[in-house]
Every structure is written in structure tokens, then in C-alpha cells.
Amino acid sequence: VLPLQFKPGDSAKSLGLTGKEVFGIEGITDTMAPGATLTVVATKPDGGTLTFPVISRIDTGVEVGYYRNGGILQTVLRQLVAGRK
Known about the structure:
Elements (H helix, E strand, L loop, with lengths): L3 E3 L5 H4 L6 E5 L10 E7 L5 E8 L4 H9 L2 H13 L1
Antiparallel strand pairs: 1-4, 2-3, 3-4
Helix pairs in contact: 2-3
């Protein structure tokens, strides 16, 4: 799960989002920094698209590590396995 926040002035209503869209997120990289600006591409049921910027709410370097590893549990398990070698 990647927590995202609309940029100031944007909202689901102002962007015309209905909840029926399929969302893609651009800008997720191995070097993603806390609070990065990412791009959401919303594909509407009729095939039209809407692109808008959002703020990643991964707010710390530790949280970036958790995200890269697939979550806190996976991070802890990888650390445990690495410690057994």
C-alpha cells in the first residue's frame, strides 16, 4: 500500500474522480525520497485518462525501506534471515 495525498487545491471532487477509475502510479523508483511527488494516471471506464500529481506520504527513510521490502513484516523477516547467515 502506498499512501498518497492530493496536492493543495486538488480533491477527488475537483478532479472529477468517481471511484470507477483504474489508477496507475508513475515515479516509483529505487531512489524515491520521502515526500516525493508522484504522478497518478486515472483511466476512466470510457477509456479516457486524467493525470495529476500527488504527494507520497512515505515520510521517512525508514518508511521508504519498509515500502521497498514490501512492508514491515517482510523487512523484519529479511533481517532475521540475514542474521542467520
